[in-house]
Amino acid sequence: MDQSHKKNTKDIMEQSHSDSKKLSCIKNNIYLHISDKELENKLSQYVIDNGYNVIPLKEPIEFDTDHLTETHSVLLISSQFITHKTASKASSLGIPVITVSNEDTIESRIESVRNDGSYYIAQPIDKELLRSTIDKAMIPRSPHTYKILIIDDDEMLASFHEMIVRRAGMKTKIINSPLKSFTAIDEFKPDLILMDLYMPVCSGSELSRIIRQKEKYSGIPIIFLSTESDLNEQMAAMEFGGDDFLSKPVSPERLVATVSNRARRAIEANTISSDLKVIASELKTKTIDLDSALTTARSAEVLKSRLIATMSHEIRTPINGMLGILDKLINTELNPQQREFSEIVLSSTESLLSILNDTLDFSKLEAGKMTLENIEFAPVKTINQVHKLFEETASSKGINLRFENEANVPTTIYGDPVRLKQVLINLINNAIKFTDHGEITTSVSVKSNEDNHLVLLFKIIDQGVGLTINQQNSIFDEYSQAESSTSRTHGGTGLGLSICQKLSKIMGGEIGVSSNPGRGSTFWFTAKFSEHPSSSIRDTNDITIDTFPIDYSAQKPLVLIAEDNDVNQMIISSYLQKHGIASHIASNGEIAVTKKNSGHYDIIFMDCQMPVLDGYQATRIMRHQEESNDGIRTPIIAMTGNVLTGDREKCLNAGMDGYLSKPINKQKLAVLLEEFLGAENDS
To answer: Which of 60-64, 207-211, 259-263, 509-513 has the highest average model confidence (pLDDT)?
Structure first.
């Protein structure tokens, strides 16, 4: 240790000895910082009547520090004013904090502990409780049970601080080398660590950062000691995990008060945390018991829901294949009747896929994860397609399906035709289900059209059994049907109308019903659309074009299709071959990586879910190899059946350049090919 360091240590110790002699008569001060003026006046008068001095604060950290060594002080502060900074300041001055809350809730108690409040009372204020709380705060706590670990390379100063803390009744241990810290923590199990900020080998801030990385040490408070008093230095140290900061020289009273208060609060906080874990465990047990009871009561419904969920996933793949083949079939030479039948089958298959996803859609809607497309479509054509789906069913019951549309309904609009279809299918199917004969009319009209915000009103009017007022009030509730016998008579899970309500809401509209029992019902809903594209982000899943615009034969491009499903492989390669694009197949991510390493590809279509290596893993490997070898970046297009919020971001974060949702649509595929191959063609 050099001479200047020894002199500095000597000066600090002499100053600390001098401070320890400044003891005089004890006064009791109550610092007040209360949000409500009337409450502040009442509290002020009460504490004065009980013999305390009252010191109102304009700001919670404006303590009178001139006489702190001559007083016992308490801070009485409103819960909305208490912060960790305020509590830390009070702690450093040895002032207990009593938090005054507007109401007594578990949240307010936890918030008080989180902000290091020592004590807690809630309105309405009980005078006896307030008096006993203040008295309790005024009594110096017995610190003998606290275990303090001192980490300081300066042996003389460490011993001096250890002596002060030990004389106050605390158990202590000194470590002069930061490298021995973790062994000491594990063996000594301290309630608090008193650490020098500036040490060789490993600074206090760095050691604190390492300690905070270990969860088992997270509840141990750390107080930094330093001769530096620069505020920026203090704040920087606190960011590394420190709980408080004391500048050397520190008076013995300040050191003991800060250490004991911090240790006590940490023990209290850890106790509360432990209690909360017990409560959480009990709550979890009760929740499990409740879930078990609910599962038992609705076991048949649960089993049916699980079956539907499994079917939804398992049937998706073959339906995707059907859609691809039907799309190809429609583009072959067919006579008018064959084309009409093929289009009906295609529309029915698309609707089947949508219906199979109802259960999954419901969970997405509940979680707020449903996404909407924004593509151009014809609303009248969409309604006619839905009507065609029900023509045979309606005819078999002697029901006539009618469609009315106002002349001012635009020919084409921008929005999500799939979700619109889903609502229409549910409502028309519901109307047919509860109508034995007569007529069902679907109408569409413009409710409003301003600044490219088009609101359409849809109505489905039936002549069925109708609904009572009570039934109308609950018809859109989950698992709700008009009568208990309804499901036996007409079938259904009771989710359809609830899904319609949620879909209309995310489309910017609302849904309702008017009805007379025995005379039929009118279900109506609104939805927002636009007459012009509103999105500035280019997303191929939001674009529809009528033709496959470019023949790429002259370029002789080569594409790699990484896809484990045989049908999807065939559909994509067929699309590409038809327009002069050769392709290779990789049935999993590992094969895709190998093929890319052995040849050049203009584009890679990457399925996200594959065996061995999935699309995300394979893409990361490819990007890493390109960066390591200074190779050309090959465009990689994600292919996925997922449409949840965040899936696009997940693909882009993996290193993919585009996103194509399944079932694969040739128009959307064309957009991607034009984007990544068209520039070369144009040149």
So the answer is: 509-513
Q: Quick one: CA torsion of 149, 155, 158, 162, rounded to 10 degrees?
A: 80
- Burial zone of 437 (CB within 10 Å; 0-12 exposed, 13-18 middle, 19+ buried): exposed
Q: How buried is residue 65: exposed, middle or buried, by Cβ count under 10 Å (0-12/13-18/19+)?
A: exposed
In the chain, what are the domains?
A: 18-138 (3.40.50.2300), 147-272 (3.40.50.2300), 357-529 (3.30.565.10), 548-682 (3.40.50.2300)
Which is more confidently placed, 464 or 88?
464
CB atoms within 10 A of CB 528: 15
CB neighbours (10 Å) of residue 485? 9
What is the bridge-based pairing of β-strands 658-661 and 636-640? parallel
φ, ψ of residue 666 to 5 degrees: the values are -65, -30
Q: Which helix (H) or strand (E) holds 245?
A: strand 244-247
- Of 649, 579, 667, nearest to 608 by C-alpha is 649
Length of the chain: 683
CA torsion, points 230, 232, 236, 237, in degrees to nearest 10?
20
**What is each CA distance from 97 to 38, 70, 89, 436, 575, in whole angstroms?**
21, 18, 10, 74, 73
Instruction: Say whether 361 sits in a helix, a strand or coil.
Output: helix
How far is residue 384's CA from residue 565's CA, in Å, rounded to a whole number? 33
- Which position has the token pair 């012009």? 532
Confidence of residue 494 (pLDDT cuts 50, 70, 90): low
Reported confidence tier of residue 95, pLDDT bands at 50, 70, 90: confident
Per-residue pLDDT, averaged over 361-371, amounts to: 64
- What the block records as the tokens of 115 is 């902000």
